[in-house]
Amino acid sequence: GAGVSQSPSNKVTEKGKDVELRCDPISGHTALYWYRQSLGQGLEFLIYFQGNSAPDKSGLPSDRFSAERTGGSVSTLTIQRTQQEDSAVYLCASSREAKNIQYFGAGTRLSVL
Amino acid sequence: KNQVEQSPQSLIILEGKNCTLQCNYTVSPFSNLRWYKQDTGRGPVSLTIMTFSENTKSNGRYTATLDADTKQSSLHITASQLSDSASYICVVSADSWGKLQFGAGTQVVVTP
After folding, report:
1. Record: contact A106-B103, CB cut-off 8 A
2. Quick one: which of A4, B63, B73, B109 has the fewest CB in 10 Å?
3. Residues B59-112: pLDDT tens digits?
4. What gap in Å lies between CA A90 and CA A46, rounded to an integer?
5. 3-class secondary-structure state, position A86
6. Residue B81, by phi and psi: left (phi above 0), alpha (psi -120 to 50) or beta?
7. CA-to-CA distance for A21 and B80, rounded, in angstroms?
8. What is the CA radius of gyration of chain B?
9. Residues A84 and B82: beta-carbon distance below 8 Å
10. Does the distance separating the beta carbons of B4 and A42 come in below 8 Å?
11. Which DSSP letter does residue A101 get?
12. Helix (H/G/I), strand (E/B), else coil: A58
């Protein structure tokens, strides 16, 4: 596709439920990143993929958060047993290689009630 | 403590006027500094990227400066337009793989 695509664009869930967020990076981009943006806050790094492996997942806030990437392309961020503090916009970005310019998707706005 | 500090937090300017946004960072070692523009409800879009040896970089009406000695950067917007209303985010790359450290952004509102 022309850009980074994320789905769904909005997700409302109940506390305790699991959610899956999807990211389709730009074709040919080997590096993929997940960030979280809370209201009025800067972007918070979650995890970095190079191909299908994650050399840096130091930003995942708890073991309820996990992510995977398959085929060097699509990535899924899973949040188990969601909590209200998980409410935020989750942004995905990709770049041709690490250190190159990152192109961002529009994000998934997650609301946990 | 955030390693990338931006000021002001927000500002309102009249269409056609200029403005300058500031960024101070403590990230080390330094690889490069980027400015992103984020429209409401959209993902950030890259405006400029500067390495240690670059002092200034322009992209249309946007001009970024970098002083790597004092660890300061600025983004100057010339002849502002209504479409410049957005959050401007200063981002510093330091880690070996290019891990980014984000400032909280400056919210710019351009009024007619």
Report:
1. no
2. B109
3. 999 999 999 899 999 999 999 999 999 999 999 987 677 788 999 999 999 999
4. 9
5. helix
6. beta
7. 36
8. 13
9. no
10. yes
11. P
12. coil
Q: Which residues on chain A are in Cβ contact (under 8 Å) with B4?
A: 42
CA-based nearest residue in chain A for residue B93: A99
Residue type, B31: S
| Sequence-distant (≥ 6) Cβ neighbours of residue A47 within 8 angstroms | A33, A34, A54, A56, A57, A59, A60, A67, A77
B50/B98 Cα distance (integer angstroms): 13
Q: For A52-97, what is each residue's pLDDT tens digit?
A: 999 999 999 999 999 999 998 999 999 999 999 999 999 999 999 8
**Residue B47 pLDDT class (50, 70, 90 cuts):** very high
* Mean pLDDT, residues A2-25: 96
Beta strands in chain A (DSSP E): 5-7, 10-13, 19-24, 31-37, 44-50, 53-56, 65-69, 75-79, 88-95, 103-104, 108-112
Integer-rounded Cα Rg, in Å, for chain A is 13
State how far the Cα of B19 lies from the Cα of B108, in Å rounded to an integer: 9
**B34:A101 CB<8 A:** yes
Residue A1 CB coordination number (10 Å):
8
